[in-house]
Structures are given as C-alpha cells and as structure tokens.
Amino acid sequence: MTAPASPASPASASAAPAPAPATPLTGRDVVIVGGSSGIGLEVARRAVTAGARVVIGGRNAEKLASAAESLGERASWGVVDTTDKASLAAFFDGIDRIDHLFTPAASYQVGPMRELTDSEAESPFVSKFWGQYHAVRHAAPKLTADASVVLMSGAASVRPPAAAPAYVACNAAIEGLGRGLAVELAPVRVNVVSPGTVDGNLWAQRPAEVREASFAQYGRDALLRRPGTEGEIADAVLFLFTNTFMTGSTLYPDGGYALR
Ligand SMILES: NC(=O)c1ccc[n+]([C@@H]2O[C@H](COP(=O)([O-])OP(=O)(O)OC[C@H]3O[C@@H](n4cnc5c(N)ncnc54)[C@H](OP(=O)(O)O)[C@@H]3O)[C@@H](O)[C@H]2O)c1
Q1: Ligand 1, residues 202, 217, 257: which to mutate, most atoms within 8 A of Cβ?
Q2: What parts of the chain have a pLDDT lower than 50?
Q3: How many Å apart are CA 232 and CA 253, to the nearest integer?
Q4: Any atom of ligand 1 within 6 Å of the Cβ of 197
Q5: What is the pLDDT of residues 151-185, one digit of tens each?
Q6: Which Pfam families would you find in this protein's record (predicted)?
Q7: Buried b / exposed e across 213-224, counting CB within 10 Å, b at 16+?
Q8: Is residue 7 part of a domain?
Q9: CATH number at residue 50
Q10: Domain range enclosing 156
Q11: Ligand 1 midpoint to CA 226 (Å)
Q12: Ligand 1 nearest atom to the CA of residue 228, by list position
C-alpha cells in the first residue's frame, strides 16, 4: 500500500478542533476494491468522514492517487485488477486487517445474446462475478471476526431492463453468491447491494444520447421516476457495513424499479 495520501496537518494546540463524535466506523479498516470512482469512491468518502481508515483499489494508479488525495490522510491506495489472481494476491498481501470490504470493481459488456461475441457475453461473469468471488477469497484471511463484506450486484437481476441475458444472470448469481458466502464465512456478515440505474460516473462515460434515453426510460420504469445518486447507494452500503444483524441479504436501492 502507499503511504497516506497527504501528510498529517501540523499540530495546533490552541485552535485544535473538537474531536468528531465516534461512529460505528471510527477506527475501523475499510477496503474498497473499485474505490477510485463512482459508488466505491462515494462509500470511501462516507467511511472516512465517519472515522474509518480506507484503502481503495483499482487498475489505474493515477486515478487512485487523485481519489485518495481527495479523501485525505486516512486513505491509501493500491493497484489491483480483480480479473488477475496474482494482482489480487499482491494487493491483499499489503493489507493487515479488514473490518469492512466492498467490491464494486467491474468492467464488462452488456447486450443481447444474438449480438454479443462469446467473450463479450462472458465478460460480466469474468469481471463482476468471478472478480468479486476471487477478491473475497483473497481478502478472507484478513477479515476480522466481526467483519462485514458487501458485494455489488444490480437490480437487473430481478427485472431485466433490456435484452442482456448474461448480465441479468450474472447479477442474480452474485446475489446467490452473497447468500452462500454468508453461510460459509459466518460470523463474518456478507450482504449484497443491488442498485437500479445511478446518475453517476459510470453513465457519465457513456454517449449523451444513450445516457439520456436510459435515464428517461428509468424515470418511466421506477416508482420514484428518476435514477438514483451515488450517495443514495453509498448510504445503503454503509448500512450493510454497520447493522450487526444483517447477513445473507440483498438490498435494492432502486427507487421501486423492481416493482413496476
Ligand atoms: N452506475 C450504475 O447505474 C450501476 C447500477 C447498478 C449496478 N452498478 C454496478 O456498480 C459497479 C460500479 O459501478 P460505478 O457506477 O461505481 O462505476 P465506476 O465509476 O466505473 O467504478 C468502477 C470502479 O471499479 C474499478 N474497476 C473496474 N474494473 C476493475 C477491475 N477489473 N479490477 C479492479 N478495479 C476495477 C474502476 O477503476 P479502474 O477502471 O481504474 O480500474 C472504478 O474504481 C459495477 O459493478 C456496476 O455493475 C452500477
């Protein structure tokens, strides 16, 4: 892991700010694989604000360094590619203990069975399903006895938004993986967050006409008539980190998308 993102501020005895009130995350060690942008970075922000130390991982060192700098001195970072087991091993070798693990890292293609190549169709399972499986496997020896893990899914698992069968199946499989890991790893808690469409970094990378059409469709499909925000999804993840009776569950912060 790198050193903290920025040096400690010089001490000032006379004007020292009052210490922040303790929260369930104060002094806890949080690791976010896929924490350099989007929902993962938003979870990192909230965890740091709540007093945790955070390690963020991703494939791009420059992006990680800049994200960690924005998080402040309780954040550090390491390069990791979840599709590469040697990279996962090296990343987790550099980490001593994990109280909370979140694994939103993934990149994949989505589309109809009749249009995608085999490798495009397999990409959600390769990156999002097996990426998270192997991330948890490499993290497992470092999880503390009262640790929690949150996997990333997507509400397409329960309501396919368009022809994208492998992506739909991948998310459903991740929700099954969460239940299976909750049984195997107990008393470590394992839960899954399964958001609807989020107006954030991932969609900002896509062409404007595709994004606007998708958001408009989501507005028609969801009870709350709009996409979610990264902050709304991050709040759900922090709830799963800290509620000590939640395990084996999937939460759907989706504005009621699955119901219509
Ligand atoms: N945004 C939505 O509407 C939405 C809805 C439902 C579910 N989700 C799920 O949320 C997850 C993250 O989405 P997001 O909106 O937060 O997007 P994002 O901003 O693209 O975040 C993805 C993060 O994962 C990292 N990453 C990607 N592939 C990786 C790999 N193979 N190994 C390690 N790190 C990797 C990225 O950094 P690098 O690229 O530098 O590695 C980045 O830090 C995805 O699994 C997505 O399916 C998103």
Answers
A1: 202
A2: 3-13
A3: 7
A4: yes
A5: 999 999 999 988 999 999 999 999 999 999 999 99
A6: adh_short_C2 (PF13561)
A7: ebeeebeebbee
A8: no
A9: 3.40.50.720
A10: 29-198+230-254
A11: 21
A12: 3
